[in-house]
Amino acid sequence: MDMKKLPIAAAALLLASTPAFADWGELLNKASGAINTYGQQATDVVSEKTVDEERQIGSEWAATLLGAAPLWANDKAQRYVNDVGLWLALHSERPELAWRFGVLDSPNVNAFATPGGYVFVTRGLLARMRNEAELAGVLAHEIAHVVEKHHLDAVRKAQGIGLGAGLLKQFAIKDKGNATVNERLLGGVKEVMSRGLDKGDEYEADRMGVVIATRAGYDPYGLPAVLQTLQALNAQDSTLALMFATHPEPGARLDALEKAMGTTLEAYAAQPQLQARFQKTVGKP
Ligand SMILES: [Zn+2]
Questions:
Q1: Which tens digits make up the pLDDT trace of 100-123?
Q2: Ligand 1 center to residue 248 CA distance, Å?
Q3: Which residues of 148-183 are buried (b: 16+ CB within 10 A; e: fewer)?
């Protein structure tokens, strides 16, 4: 990644040996108790050896998304969103994943992630954003879903697969030719795509997303700003239908974030929003 392209504050945070991060341990524990049990979860659900398989599930899932809406034919915007996403992912609890970020050519307002590190934002949502900190907030929310394996949990639940059963064994990735097995995965994916994740997982991703974006050097209020924009849109607008059907309403998410953030992150509010760079690359809202 080109350091010159990175936000100055972000690069400074990366280079300094981050004494300020001492506070983040506590903040992260508050933001997500699950992080403490991550090691245990990894053993129970997807052992580290099976990260490749997690990614295989994710890539099949991503392919179904791309079948519905291809990538936006705008190389500059794609590269930019991928750079911002990779920078954020480096500040997540799973920096080692082979993360990929892309913009879907859809007028709908939405963002998605799939297991293993695939993250997509729609052209429609990008068009509602004003600066890079807002983009970072949205991408970091999706990164949090991947870090916490929310989608894998949701597919398991949708297919009635217990924790002990082992999701990957059930989908028998090695027998990929077996249509029944693939249909089971696809069925779970479709259900999760139309119904969305648990509300609790969405709130958790909001809290973790704000933390990741802040660690990466951005103004922490990027995600809340996007939620405010969404709140102000007409809920009857058809481009919002899927997002509103699959997420708690923006007002409730803002309330929950406000409660969780309190004044903890105000000290970081002067971190950059990078409006000029965003609008030069993506366009003005
Ligand atoms: Zn979400």
A1: 999 999 999 999 999 999 999 999
A2: 9
A3: bbbbbbbbbebbebeeeebbbebbebeeeeeeebbe
